[in-house]
Write a structure and sequence with these properties.
Substrate Binding Domain Of DNAk, Chain A, domain 1, globular, about 525 residues, six-stranded mixed beta sheet, about 30% strand, Nucleotidyltransferase, domain 5
């Protein structure tokens, strides 16, 4: 993707909070403040009855709106073709709602740095191709030239190495370090093991869950309080959307307070009744222990897949606001046998790492020389990164042990270094077969129905009278940006075809253009 004239930024588009950052002239990643003077913006959109669009509204303001007009945690819906919100008789997708958040951050930042044209946007490592495409579409709708989509742990590693004064330095020791990046955000989770020197970054293994994050911890408190309320007053406050939102805000505040206090008072209101109770950290940790265990299981699995003894780790890096919970630090200290590092600011590190990555891309294109010192540009040009794929890539084929059954045959296993390319020969199923239909699957299970079909294509006009069992070569590849390509060739007549990835959950260029025009009509506050 080519850069356009204008400022370049890095963006962490989060489930509960988002952040935007830029490299300063001195070569430091700096968070850009919003109109409230904060370095993070709530990823909440309020669609007012009067046609207003407010990003990150205060509770006082949002309490006067119907809960149906308040959209939260939309990141979890990215790429979901069945998700939409009706506003002014229009269906607004997750991409469009996310674009409104991006538009708000962009216009706030522009008041301080001038017109912003280009952006690197981060995604959880475990986002699949459909979700990545949706994130890119959101950026375009917001009026941004999305020059790259980068994985959040990779961004955090760049920020960590820069903070340590190592990134891009050729005049310091090139001895490699291995770090574990534990990223628990508001709505998503992943853990990644990275091996790096000042100029080479290589991801060894990654895993995660796009439906696990801080909001799940908060919901446990909401359920606990609601059950206490029902036990006392005989009515379930979860039957009211207004009460659920009010309870959620109070419980979120209590959860945050428990990071520094052993007990907090909690008062909630519903149907004219008031309940006040004390919530202890021990109670909170007990009711959410299974959620923490899920992250521990993933951490141990990734270390195993990376073939890394936790005792040999150079550092355990915490990313994401939910890592402030003391139980997280305690668990990781036990698993990795070392205290996790809190040198990075968990809620800012990813956006700042994205800003560094954007500056690296600019330096390679000889851009930014008037904005960033030449010595910094030389350091940035020296950095090379290597990632792995977070999902296995397979093809639907007939089971050799049961021809009537289809299975997912994995072509590229998860945690393969990218870019990469793999080829394998298959055979036609029937005599005089005239077409070969290739279904591209994303997933690790053998059951095709349990995988995501992200594309398909056909090799047509095969030679007549082709016998069953004729060879067909299928090639799958990931490019350096993690995008997927597929091709097939029938070897008897050399008929070829390449994949045109069909992202049924994504937007077409026409949809993006239409949404971009629509977004320009809304004044975002």
């Amino acid at each position: 993707m080519k850069f356009l004239e204008g400022q370049t930024v890095g963006v962490d588009l989060g489930t509960t909070y988002s952040a935007i950052a830029q490299m300063s002239a001195e070569g430091n990643p700096v968070s850009l403040l919003n109109s409230d003077g904060r370095n993070i913006t709530p990823s909440v959109v309020m669609l007012g009855d009067d046609g207003s669009v407010v990003v990150g509204p205060t509770f006082e303001r949002s309490s006067h709106e119907s809960p149906d007009h308040i959209v939260e945690a939309v990141k979890r819906q990215m790429g979901n073709k069945n998700f939409y919100v009706i506003f002014q008789n229009k269906k607004l997708t997750a991409e469009f709602i996310s674009a409104l958040i991006l538009k708000k951050m962009k216009q706030d930042a522009e008041k301080n740095v001038g017109p912003i044209a280009n952006a690197v946007i981060t995604v959880p490592y475990y986002f699949n191709d459909v979700r990545r495409k949706a994130t890119q579409d959101a950026g375009r709708i917001a009026g941004l030239n999305v020059v790259d989509i980068i994985n959040e742990p990779t961004a955090a590693t760049l920020a960590y190495a820069w903070m340590k004064g190592e990134l891009g330095r050729t005049d310091v020791s090139q001895e490699s370090k291995t770090i574990l990046v534990y990223d628990l955000g508001g709505g998503t989770f992943d853990v990644t093991v990275v091996k790096y020197t000042p100029t080479q970054f290589r991801v060894l293994a990654t895993d995660g869950d796009v439906m696990l994050g801080g909001i799940d911890w908060t919901r446990r408190i909401v359920d606990h309080v609601a059950e206490q309320f029902q036990r006392k007053f005989g009515t379930d406050p979860r039957s009211s959307a207004e009460s659920v939102r009010s309870f959620s805000l109070e419980c979120e505040d209590a959860k945050r307070a428990l990071s520094t206090k052993s007990s907090v008072p909690l008062t909630v209101y519903h149907a004219g009744k008031t309940l006040t109770l004390a919530l202890t950290r021990n109670d909170f940790e007990r009711m959410t222990s299974d959620l923490l265990q899920r992250t521990q299981d993933t951490t141990e699995l990734v270390l195993q897949q990376a073939k890394v003894d936790p005792r040999t780790l150079s550092e355990v890096v915490l990313v994401g606001g939910s890592t402030y919970m003391p139980a997280v630090e305690k668990m990781l200290a036990e698993v990795c046998q070392r205290q996790p590092s809190r040198e990075l600011k968990p809620e800012e590190a990813v956006a700042q790492g994205a800003a560094i990555h954007a500056a690296i891309l600019e330096a390679r294109e000889n851009r930014g020389s008037t904005q960033i010192a030449q010595a910094v540009i030389q350091r940035l040009r020296a950095v090379q990164t290597s990632d792995v794929n977070s999902h296995s890539l397979g093809v639907k084929v007939s089971d050799p042990d049961n021809r009537g059954k289809k299975i997912n045959h994995i072509m590229i296993p998860k945690n393969s270094q990218v870019p990469c390319s793999f080829s394998q020969r298959f055979v036609t199923n029937s005599p005089n077969q005239r077409t070969v239909h290739v279904y591209i699957l994303e997933g690790d299970t053998k059951d095709p129905d349990a995988c995501s079909q992200i594309g398909d294509f056909q090799v047509v006009d095969l030679p007549p009278n082709l016998p069953a069992g004729s060879p067909v070569e299928v090639t799958y590849s990931y490019d350096a940006n993690g995008r997927i390509h597929a091709a097939a060739k029938e070897l008897t007549g050399n008929k070829k075809a390449e994949a045109s990835i069909v992202r049924d959950s994504g937007l077409t260029d026409q949809n993006v253009d239409a949404f971009e025009n629509l977004a320009s009509l809304y004044q975002v506050e």
